[in-house]
Structures are given as structure tokens and as C-alpha cells.
Amino acid sequence: MKQKIVIKLGNGNNRYSSKAMKIAAGVSGVESMTLLGENKDRIMVIGAGIDAVSLTKCMRKKLGSAELISLVPIGNNETEEEKIEAIIQYPKRPSYQYPSWRYY
Fold it and tell me: Which InterPro entries does this chain map to (predicted)?
């Protein structure tokens, strides 16, 4: 599930914001990053499967201070029928296939 994370950085310094962007880019699942605020003191990270607490801890460790402001899930607008159709479209594989090199 996609989520939007907003983290407040300790200082609006340009050096801190660029370091925060590098840290966020290194996390798996990140799709986009944006600096927010008048002083560029907040970073918004959008992605799927991101651990917000560990990202904040990592930024706090590297930058000195960081605070998790918000964590909002971005929901899908899929209906129940679309989910069922997506499941049905994928063919089921047999539970186990014996390797061909064993029996030939």
C-alpha cells in the first residue's frame, strides 16, 4: 500500500535538506521525494512498503534532529470486482513440477 510520509528536519539549512534527500533515496520502495515549507525544512516521501519510524530514526542519526509529522495511507480506488478479476486472470501453477533432468 502506498503511503505519504512527512518528516520535519531540524534545520532549514540547504545542507540538511540535501542529506535528507540522499537518505530517503536510499530506502527501498520510495517513489518520490519533495521538500516542503518556506525554509525547505520538511520532506515528503511517497512510496510503498516504507517503514516511517526507521526512516525517521536514520535521519535523526545522520542529521541530528528529525520529527515524524504525518503518515497517511494513499488508498487504491479499486472495487471488489476489479480485485476478483485480477485474481482470476492469473493462471494457477501446479503445486510442484518435477525437474525434467531427473527423470530423463
Answer: HIPP47/16
Q: Is the pTM value of this prediction over 0.90?
A: no
Render pLDDT for 10-26 as a digit per residue (tens, 0 to 9): 766 677 888 889 999 99
Q: Cβ atoms within 10 A of the Cβ of 101, count? A: 6
Neighbours of 59 (CB within 10 A): 24
Cell, residue 36: 516542503
Please tell me the distance from the alpha carbon of residue 72 to that of residue 3, in angstroms, as a whole number: 6
Using CA atoms, how far apart are residues 8 and 59, in angstroms rounded to an integer?
Answer: 10
